[in-house]
Amino acid sequence: MKLTLQTQLLHPPDQVCVLEATTRAFNAAADWLAGEAFARKTANKIALQKLFYRTLRARFSLSAQMAVRCIAQVCEAYKRDKTKRPCFRPFAAIPYDQRLMSFKGLDRVSLLTISGRILVPFIMGSYQSERFTAAKGQFDLVRRKDGKWFLLVTVDLPDGTKIPATDFIGVDLGVANIATDSDGSRYSGASVEACRIRNHDLRRSLQKAAVGRKRRRLRPKNIRRKLKSIAGREARFRKDINHVISKSLVAKAKGTGRGIALEDLKGIRDRTRFRKAQRAKMGGWAFHQLRSFIEYKAKREGVELVLVDPKNTSRECPSCGHIDKANRPSQAEFRCVACGHTGHADVNAARNIRSRARALVNAPKVSERHFGLQAA
């Protein structure tokens, strides 16, 4: 199993200038080469290397291996969608491999730049350091909006021993409750929504104050500094909540010998329309992030994960199977108009997800059905 660890680089001001210059040069080269690849309608790495390798080295001052990585980066981006010309931002992440970097212990890394090699100290948390010995392959050098530099390190970890599951914990993802499982446990989204509203109001008031100061020809330096310090606060809080929820769900599934069943919500934002008042709230719904956290944690622990069709999971009665929009009189309430079954809407949806996963996994295979017919 591949896992990406994040380590923060600690660098003096002179190294910052070198890293910025290297990143700008690499991405300028990649952006120029992307235009040439798009004009020729080719994503062939060997062909582009024959045509533009020397130009990249001479025009953008890239080293030999940096030029090779630049060509590979452009080919990879262009292959995703050949109808569009790839564009590279000045501070987009740049790839590093073993020829461009080497670790000097657990606190320093040697990076090749357009000005030669530099030795940069870095720090990592206990979680990263425990798994750092399995680091291998290509790494990414990333500059965040706040000016901090990070190295994203890919590590290979052994998968947990997978235990085939015949029963599952159904998990319904939502907004009022970020996650609800079929056992009845609910993980509220109230704290995330409160954080979103608080940060939205704070940003709006600070931006309004900055505009007022600018009109009065005053320097809103302190306001800009405050805006910079709170940038990403909401995203970090949401990410932490998703880590806590995913860890709890996987631990429960492993402890009870069950798998985890999720709805396949791919493309839900393209299929669903929201009112203007709901757009900010729904736009911040990080269900894909939560799903990815559950997926890699489940794989690491050997817990089986199944995706089911989400259609009508919130409208279907788990007792009689009747499906009707009227079964949901409110966001949190479920009341079947056919048999009278009542319950919490999210718990009901999670139980339907569990039932679909059990039916999917326990259904007889084609060969088994044929064998049964022959035996009969």
What does the model show?
The chain has helices spanning 13-40, 45-60, 64-80, 126-131, 190-215, 221-230, 233-255, 268-271, 276-283, 287-301, 345-362, 366-375; strands spanning 2-9, 94-96, 101-103, 108-113, 116-123, 139-143, 149-156, 168-173, 177-181, 186-188, 259-263, 305-308, 333-335, 342-344. It has 376 residues and is of the alpha+beta class. It folds into two domains: 2-156, no CATH class; 168-187 and 240-362, 2-Layer Sandwich (Nucleotidyltransferase, domain 5). The chain has a seven-stranded antiparallel β-sheet. A hairpin with a 4-residue loop joins β3 (101-103) and β4 (108-113). α2 (45-60) packs across α3 (64-80), α5 (190-215) runs antiparallel to α6 and α7 packs parallel to α10 (287-301). The radius of gyration is 26 Å and the shape is globular. The model has no long low-confidence stretch (mean pLDDT 84).
